[in-house]
Fold this sequence. Notes:
Elements: H1 12-20, H2 23-31, E1 35-37, H3 46-65, H4 75-84, H5 89-117, H6 125-147, H7 152-163, H8 172-180, H9 187-216, E2 234-236, H10 237-262, H11 292-300, H12 304-319, H13 321-324, H14 336-356, H15 362-389, H16 399-410, H17 420-424
Antiparallel strand pairs: 1-2
Helix pairs in contact: 3-5, 3-9, 3-10, 4-5, 5-6, 5-10, 6-7, 6-9, 11-12, 11-14, 11-15, 14-15
Amino acid sequence: MSGHSTYQPTSAFGRWFExxxxxxxxxxxxxxxxxxxxxxxxxxxxxxxxxFCLVAQLMxxxxxxxxxxxxxxxxxxxxxxxxxNVNYGWLLRYxxxxxxxxxxxxxxxxxxxxxxxxxxxxxxxxxxxIGVLIYLAMMATAFxxxxxxxxxMSFWGAKVITSLFGAIPLIGDYxxxxxxxxxxxxxxxxxxxxxxxxxxxxxxxxxxxxHIWALHVPGNGNPTGISVKSSQDTxxxxxxxxxxxxxxxxxxxxxxxxxVFYMPNVMGHTDNYILANPLVTPAHIxxxxxxxxxxxxxxxxxxxxxxxxxMFAAIGVxxxxxxxxxxKVRSAVFRxxxxxxxxxxxLVCIGLGYLGAKPPEGGYVIAARLLTAYYFLHFLVxxxxxxxxxxxxxxxxxxxEAVLAKSKKKSGDSGGGSGGAAASGAAAAxxxxx
Length: 434
Ligand code: HEM
């Protein structure tokens, strides 16, 4: 996964095993000796946090599935049974439901980190594209998982989203009937959603394996966006980043625990504690918070087909992002104009999220249309032009030089600072810039 292994087994058994299946060497070169830029900030801990989230979802999900019944007559009460009768069932369920939200919080931070520091640029395009595939699989998994408790929002959310496929010209109605497995959202729909909800996390796990493989070919990016020039720029992954990632994961799980133990339903919808009723439509059908920006885009467009296409295009555009951004400089730290547009884009996404939760009427629709237009403008017009007209700030010669300059600044230019000897060694290295 990450070049030649330097792992030396110490026992006779270890040498025997390693010469037959060098898996410990693989783990050693990928997660222990792996040379990692020494200037990674806390935004780089979210990849590890996401891996923990995936494992937590898999573990809690597998035990939940032992007690859940995927049948329209029993699904709702089997969830209540988990909450009341199963030992620690309430904990498993609240961890799983809030875990989904925490997973999305982490993935959004991870993705916006990528946007800010230009992590999607060469040579990490494939890594980014695999990330977008993971994101799509996460959305499909979360959507189907929400249907399983068979509450009012489960049913009506499923109905609204699956009906979107009816907008496909000519074959739309057939596609929807095929997806439902009948003429409405019913038992066959619930059953196949359960099956796919169980399957997809393992697909995600496979994609994460590829994601980390693709990461280990060029190595990690870093906040300066400049490439590693020499061994002075890196430290071994263990213990430096195992400790940092571990600390960040503990902090993240404290926040997670606060939701699970003190406000387990705050991110959910009260209507989902009402049994699904095909004859009563809720006043406002809203998806989970992490889908709201896309829901706003969907409803902003007057035609149904147009809305569906725009919603999918909003994610699709991420696939071609590495080629839309024409700047030679990766990190926003050295891109004064892009930095401003990045923050405008963040506000636009939050604005779309807010509007996705509002009824599609009056000023809300107009605002959603404007923000939707800006969303696409950002990727299709602003990014390509910005790279051509922007004058980036001067880049440091190396990561070491940037680290040294920062520590000098911190110690008030007194000539002190930590790690000076190590860092100064690479300061004179010639730079091929990005
Ligand atoms: C289950 C979900 C995911 C997991 C477990 C995961 C895991 C990781 C890990 C462990 C890293 C290295 C540490 C770090 O940079 O944080 C990483 C890097 C990266 N990920 Fe992900 N990731 C996930 C989803 C995504 C998504 C959805 C995207 C983008 C659409 C993405 C894009 C990237 C990029 C571009 C990097 C390289 C960053 C750099 O080194 O500069 N990842 N990911």
